[in-house]
Design goal:
Blueprint lengths: L1 H12 L2 H41 L1 E5 L9 E9 L2 E9 L20 E4 L1 H9 L10 E5 L11 E6 L2 H5 L5 E6 L11 H27 L3 H13 L4 H37 L15 H22 L1 H5 L1 H5 L11 H18 L11 H35 L3 H12 L1 H32 L5 E7 L5 H8 L4 E9 L14 E4 L2 H7 L2 E3 L7 E4 L14 E8 L2 E8 L4 E5 L11 E3 L9 E2 L2 E8 L2 H14 L6 E2 L4 H39 L1 H9 L4 H38 L9 H19 L11 H4 L2
Parallel strand pairs: 3-6, 4-5, 10-16, 12-15
Antiparallel strand pairs: 1-7, 2-3, 2-7, 4-6, 8-18, 8-19, 9-10, 9-18, 11-15, 12-16, 13-14, 13-17
Helix pairs in contact: 1-7, 2-5, 2-7, 2-8, 2-18, 5-8, 5-12, 5-14, 5-18, 6-7, 7-8, 11-12, 11-20, 12-13, 12-14, 12-20, 13-14, 13-20, 14-18, 14-20, 14-21, 20-21
Length: 763
Amino acid sequence: MREFLLGLRLLSGAGRGNRVRFFLMAVGSSLGVCALALVLTIPAILDAHDGRTAAREPQTTSAGKAPAGSTLVLQRRDPHGSKPFTRVFVARGDKDTPQPPPGLDALPGPGELFVSPRLHELMRAEPALKGLLPGREKGRIGGAGLGDPDELYAYVGTSRAALAHDPDTGALRSSGYPYAPVPVVEPSTLTNLRFALATLVLLPLAVFLSVCARLSAASRTRRLASLRLLGLSTRGTQRVNAAETVAAALLGAVLGLGEYWLLNQAMSRSGLPALRWYPADGSLSWTTVVVCLLGCPALAWFVGRASARSAAANPLAVRRTAVPKPPSKWGGLLLVTGLGIVSGFCATGLTDHPATSDGIFAVLVVGGVLLTGSGLVLTLPWLSYLLARKVAGTTRSLTLNLAMRRNEVEPGSTMRVVTGLVLLVYAASLAQGVLIEFEQVSKPGNPVQDYSLPLSALSEEQESRLAGVPGVRAHARTMVSWSKPGPAGIPPRATALVATCAQLTRLVRHTEGCREGRVMRLVDPNSSADPDMRPGASFPFELRTGRRQVAVTLTIPSATVVMRPYDPSAIGDASMIVPPTALPAHARPRSGSLVLDSDSEPRVVRRVLDGIGGVAPTVSVEPVGVNVDSLQQIAVIETLLVLGMITGLVIGVAAFLVAVTDRAVERRAQVTAITLIGARARTLRAVQSTQVVLPLAVGLVLALVTGKLAESSYLVTGGGEVFWDFAGIPVLACAALGVVAVAALGTLPLVGRRIDPELIRRD
């Protein structure tokens, strides 16, 4: 306790420079703690969303088996653009009325409507939505009944007669399930997401906090050596140094939690792309607070004790600036162990039975990646020392000799500057692997995406506008034959595709034998033929021309078009192709659909669905083979990964800036001494740049190699088709060159224009 109080007294009485350094340590620690709290709170935000959606889910029984007078409920989930739009129709019963779901004070009666705040705003902007929501708006759904503030959700009160005959109607017993019907992120995907965020943020964060705890390391070491020479014990000296770093880290942790609170308030109100939450969802849990308030000071304690070890063990050598011992080689053991694990998994990718991330392998993959990253950081000082010693012993260049001799004496000082940037490149390589793995899981099997919309709900103007929605590459109509049921039952029905040969070519994978202007039979060689769709069979189709009904009978011809549709496809069941010129002008099928086609990339699908929602908001859209909820999940995960990348980038750049600034202050006396004996400013700038660029280049090469091995091990065990990401190498190489350029520019301020000889005499 005495050493701790002594450290605080030295902190308060060591002058303005020491207090400024303490303030910088606290500010740097606060940024790191804020980033740590953000990463730890993301799963809680997702869990809060899923908890509310699970609590409102209706528990039902079969309407036929329920007692008379039970409350009936029917749930409809449709896309509105690329967002899900949920309507819950409720018919209140007169017996045992269940409790209302969260967010409502009472179940809606007939003609009453409760909507979410976002849907309330949307109904004003799009009045046509009122056709899907019959009744008058009585109130809004509270936050307890919504997954997020932007959710489109409505409770519609109706009569029992309106729901009694629908097969999907159930009798409402209560609300709430132990799990969310549609989670924001699937559990298996959430595991990969946590791994990515830990790699992108936590590894650079640990380096950043260590850099902040080692500010002004040389000056502090000399001061501690003086205390040791005055009679303070070895452990006492270490505790004095640790007291200062712990006090700065603790203050930084408190400031960081406050910064996160402000950030949560701002981000929850503005939202991120595809992700919104309530401020309470992102509130700090006790676990997060304890981890931040204990973890950051604990890291500072160990760093402080380690940095004071040399001053406590040999104070005379520190005061007389003796040559320090070479860096430890034990960090290489971690690097070799991690590389052995990831290389082993990569080797299985060359065999017929690659390893999977099941059981113990899941732990080994994560452990191998973390050991490789940690070993990379701990091995860099030793490699920098070897490189400096070798180059300095062979070169005849004054610039190289000065630069390498300084790196040989203080390899740790240089590596504190470059370690954050090296880890940034290593983490970027892993981020590429996570994105590739997720793309393999979420990428649709089809290169195209079809959308089917009922023609009966569209006007000619809407149909024309829908064909021009950005992202739509092809469009056509389908029409279904109709005839009255006879004694033998319902007659067979045929589906005709109203399109030109050019339109057909864009809608299917391959066509052969199509001739413009002729009605032809469509044949798919990969599927069995319907016996009712034989040549010569006739089918009546009803068309509308204005207010008149027109009947057209089409006969399936013998001339065939061989087509290979995509699977699934909106026109796969069409039995004939009919050119638009074969139908009356301005005629529209009574029963049919408008088929739109686009690329299947998730961004394109979301853009097309949003465009459809803007043209025809009330029309039911069937994105063939696509679940709108999965589109939402893809968007959320992309948002979180981008957030993790930005956070890791900010931390890496901040670590570099802090280390460069600290190094400039620490090296002023040395730069002044070399300047006074005749060195030019140009030479000194070249020396300072070389001291950073050469070790950084070695570290970046190692980061590229080890990062690619770690990425490949992750891809191999992920079970996807892509094991080796050769396409990502040029991107990382360009990023590494950019990092070198930034580091070289960042070293220029190390050489100041003002020369103060008094700096040589200052201790």
